[in-house]
Amino acid sequence: MENSPKLQCNATRSNQWKIPPNFFQCNASIPKGRESTSYGLFQLTWNEKNKAMRSVVLSLSLVSLLFANVSLRYRFRECLSRLEFSVVKERLKQGSKRVASLNVHFSVVIKPNKKKKGNDSNNEYFNKLSVDVITSIFLRCPVKALSMLRCTSKSWNDLILSPSFARSHQKQSMKNSPKLLSMQCEYSKGVERAHQLTWKEKNKAMRSVVLSLSLLSSLFANVLHAVV
Amino acid sequence: MVKLKSNDDKEFEVEEAAVIQSEMIKNMIEDGCATSVIPLPNIDSKTLIKVIEYLNKHINMGKAAETGEEDDLKEFDEQFVNMGWEELFDVIMAANYLNIHELMELCCQSAADRLKNKSVRAVREMLKITNDLTEEEEQEIINDAPWAFEGPEIDDTVN
């Protein structure tokens, strides 16, 4: 928790009935331009004079939760994508002072604020293109380039990883392979890796050559696999 | 002759032999829908001129092999795709819309070749793409295929 970006919430002690305007204070520092999740724990405590107060305290705690919620939402209104509160523990302390406390666990997901003024021309070239067109460009890229292009943006990553694209890419590269022997590694998100060996067979005499080459290359692939 | 009209209301006359390289227009002619002007609402005149230039040059594709003009055509193609990204994408979209297979092939291949050895940063800059991946997601992608991000051929320049 210490490594996560700091988001501190201090619920100040309320004076019995009144909720002061600064009842809920939220101090947060969020790194800009990155999505981050912050976890925190805040404790609401107040004095309990007698048992009759208990229900009042509990309803107050609910109000303060609501308050906290609204306050957080307001502060991060443009970039907040998820805010969860959960009551972890509720207990009644015994002692000279009777204190009811409520531990609340929360996590906030803050997304980088994408809306920048005058930045509407972002993605301008590729936004104009339909998925069909982008696909037909990507189909002509080698696997190495595609692996790197995944890193440019979410939509590209999704497109390149889609099974239908992988299939078409395989077809396309088989069609275009001018080399005698080309080895292709098809990657997928998980650990599974499939490799395919394709070659052009000029004549039947070549066949045995090709077959022995394929054995050699599968050995190669094996070694490559082990390395990767 | 077939008349084509761009989205900025300019008309162009193209020989039928040239224009039928477009599957879309070929079908229109076969169906008898091309008697008057064919409006092309998705294509501006600048792009249409480029496309027509290509169609006119490739009009005798079949003959080129026999007459030894293949090299000439190859050189034309190389010159033809020598244009900016925006223009290239305009032509790709026009080729896609008109369904001109060879032109689509040529331009997409050119785009792919240009992207091929570029670094991620260079691609983003060239095409003005905003990175919406988090650092973790990015790292995950790199971990999937770390070999793709290394190598002397990777070019970080923007052009």
Number of strands of chain A: 7
Overall CATH architecture of chain B: 2-Layer Sandwich
Cα distance spanning the termini of chain B: 39 Å
Q: In percent, how helical is the residue content of chain A?
A: 25-40%
Write out the strand line-up for the largest beta sheet of chain B, numbering strands in chain order.
2-1-3
How large is the radius of gyration of chain B? 20 Å
What is the H/E order of chain B?
Answer: EEHHEHHHHHHH
Form type of chain A: elongated
Strand content of chain A: 25-35%
Portion of residues within helices of chain B? 55-70%
Report the strand count of chain B: 3
Q: List unreliable stretches of 5+ residues of chain A.
A: 1-53, 85-107, 113-122, 178-206
Largest two-chain interface: A-B, 38 and 39 residues
Main sheet strand line-up of chain A: 3-5-4
How does the overall form of chain B come out from the CA principal axes? elongated
- End-to-end Cα distance of chain A: 34 Å
**Biggest sheet of chain B, in brief?**
3 strands, mixed
Which stretches of chain B of 5+ consecutive residues score pLDDT under 50? Answer: none
According to CATH, the homologous superfamily of chain B is Potassium Channel Kv1.1, Chain A
CATH topology name of chain B, in short, is Potassium Channel Kv1.1, Chain A
Domain F-box (chain A): 127-165
Protein name (chain A): F-box domain-containing protein
Domain SKP1 component dimerisation (chain B): 102-148
GO biological process, one term (chain B): SCF-dependent proteasomal ubiquitin-dependent protein catabolic process
Task: Explain how this protein is built.
The complex is a heterodimer of chains A (228) and B (159). Chain A has 228 residues and is of the alpha+beta class. Chain A has helices at 53-75, 124-128, 131-138, 143-149, 154-161, 163-176, 206-227; strands spanning 7-11, 24-28, 36-47, 80-93, 99-110, 181-187, 193-199. Chain A has 2 domains: 7-110, no CATH class; 124-206 and 216-227, no CATH class. Chain B is 57% helix and 6% strand. Chain B contains 9 helices and 3 strands; from the N terminus they run ββααβααααααα. Chain B has a 3-stranded mixed β-sheet with strand order 2-1-3. In chain B, strand 1 and strand 2 form a beta hairpin. Chain A binds chain B through residues 34-35, 114, 119, 121-126, 128-130, 132-133, 136-145, 147-154, 156-157, 187, 189, 228, and chain B through 85-86, 89, 92-93, 96, 104, 108-109, 111-113, 115-117, 119-120, 123-124, 127-135, 137-138, 141-142, 144-145, 147-149, 151, 154. Chain A: InterPro entries: F-box-like_dom_sf (IPR036047), F-box_dom (IPR001810). Chain A: Pfam families: F-box.
